[in-house]
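Practice set, problem 2.
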Amino acid sequence: MEDLGKSFPLAESMVDAEQGTDKKLNNEFCLNCGEKLVYTYCHHCGQKDLPRRQTMGELIENFIGSFYSFESKFFRTIKFLLFKPGFLPVEYTAGKRESDYHPARAYVFISFIFFLLLFSLPDIEDKKKNRVLIQEDKKEFREGMKQIKEELNESGIDSSKADSIYNTSLAADTTDIINSLGPEKKINAKKKKNGISLMDSEYKSIKEYDSAQQALPASERHGWLMKKLHIRGIELNQRYQGDDAGNRFTDDFKKAFLENFSKVLFYLLPIFALLLKLLYVRRDYYYSEHLVFSIYYYNFFYLAASFYLLFDYIPFVGGLLTSAMVIWALVYLPLGMKRMYQQSWRKTILKYSIFLFAFFVCLMIGITGSMLAILMYL
């Protein structure tokens, strides 16, 4: 049997692998750190023992090998992350850390992909709203022009000219319509310029506000916070003026909020782990192990949210897939808690409910603080 095994190169390599023997080393010392090599990988820095100079074939072979190693590890991690709640943190805390992609690296990569999609993909809901608004505007425009036609007829303008103005106006710009009426019959069709009003204030400028405050007794003047809010409100009111002030403010606020939302979630990560630590305080887990579980859940959340954004663009079945993803995201955490902490379903559901409420409160506090910060520095 031994002779048979040695007669086949593949069997020989399998025997050598089981016996822990390595093939001949290319270098006596590690090319990266200079440590004496014992095995294929340096025990000091981890670099693989490769020839100092590589042929084109060796370079391609090593490149493909390193890519396949990353690819197999990464997609294995994604598979377990999506479909086996709690499996990866259990494996990690059990010491099996080389088979899967590191949770912290996965967090950086997956969250980057999510926010890239969030800011890059066009907003379908906005498109739907815009279509509805366009239809409403057209309807409103036609009704308005019918009223203009009636007013033209009542004012004594020839009916044929009124009909011509009406028909032309359906495809013309409002400015062209006004100019076509002639200087003696112009209708005031200009829209009232609107701005935003974040503070119900009678003051139009900061100088006016400061003067009014100085005229008041010291006991009646605004405190630091109210003064800050009033000044900021006046600045925003001055900044956002015009017909589209509300839309511009909404767009700027939405963009700033989305940019800050990732920071809010990141800052809440240790809170997430702390809540788990408090809920399972009698279980023998370090805070760091709760933190690992939290990072893996965040990874799943960003991954699921990325798929949610993409599913929304799939015709016919997109709505069904997004609904399924939302349901899976809701049940994912209790399933993960059950696998990780090995408690009964009754205790798991109870702790999940407490956790959900507590984390929601923390999230609302974080979002509120983020909104106030945006208003202060927008």
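Problem 2, part (b): a different protein.
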Amino acid sequence: MNAAEQANSIEFASKIAAVVRLFKTAFPDLRADLKPWANDAETRELVDPDSIDVGFHFPGVSRLFSCRSLLVQIRFYEDPETQVRRVIGLEVAGFDHRGKRWTLSTIHDWTFTGDGVPDYTVGDRLKQCCREVFEVFNGP
């Protein structure tokens, strides 16, 4: 679900802003998009209500990332008894004019899969951003 739609409290909006700041600090060229999904009925059927989706765009194609845009999906699980919402994983995908080029899933084995995966150094920084997202939402 678009991050802009999930920012329904000051606390949650602050955490979303912290995530944007994490990525922009690590990769200053990125421009954040809090509404990466179109607002039509067809797209809404595909949207996961237990996720926050943030898009990031480079000013052009990034050679190091092998893409033009990133889609970051932060997936949550809410404990029915305590009603505490925790991050269970992130899915990050890199896109260019041909479509999805690669993915990174923290739910599985934290490896990049696909065509033209990111350079090792930026890939490690991206993984560090993912670790910090867990801290933002699941930390004390």
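Answer key, part (b): Residues 120-138 form the longest helix (19 residues). Residues 3-138 form one domain.
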